[in-house]
Amino acid sequence: MLATETDLEDFEENYRDALAYHRRAEQFLRQQQRLSLVFNVGSVALERYLVALCHLYGAIPLNHNYICLMNAVETVVDVPKELNKEIRSLDFIFGICSLDDYFHGTPKPEDSTRVLSMCEQVRGLFDPARISLVRAAAAASMTG
After folding, report:
1. How far apart are CA 126 and CA 131, in angstroms?
2. Which pLDDT tens digit goes with each residue over 76-116?
3. Are 125 and 77 within 8 A, CB to CB?
4. Whether 13 contacts 37, CB under 8 Å
5. pTM for the complete prediction?
6. What is the spatial distance between Cα 25 and Cα 3, in angstroms, rounded to a whole number?
7. How far apart are CA 91 and CA 58, in angstroms?
8. Which residues are CB-contacts of 125 (< 8 A; sequence separation ≥ 6)?
9. CA dist 58 → 42, 77, 133 (Å)
């Protein structure tokens, strides 16, 4: 995949936040908190993971809904077809596909574990070698 300029600072912030929201959503699930809370926090984690992927590869999404994020991510990372479809389906729960016809659906109980599974799978899309390369290049540009 073609890589363009990376925004390391934005990548680091979004990746760190994604990991934190993801851990918190898993904690809420273990503590048997409301499943809607697990779902909402997990959804924020998923969004942050996707935004971090965009920054890692310099792909700029048109918007931060899941469809736009996936449109950008799939230009730089190979995303399994079923995962891509699952992530895009979240926009229909949130109803953010139209500003004129906004609707926020109620997630089903299984949506909380589904979004956590998506987070795990997206976290697995990060290439540690790419992250190391980008960090090294940024460090070298600061010293040289």
Report:
1. 8
2. 999 999 999 999 999 887 665 455 555 556 788 899 999 99
3. yes
4. no
5. 0.89
6. 31
7. 23
8. 53, 77, 79
9. 24, 11, 14
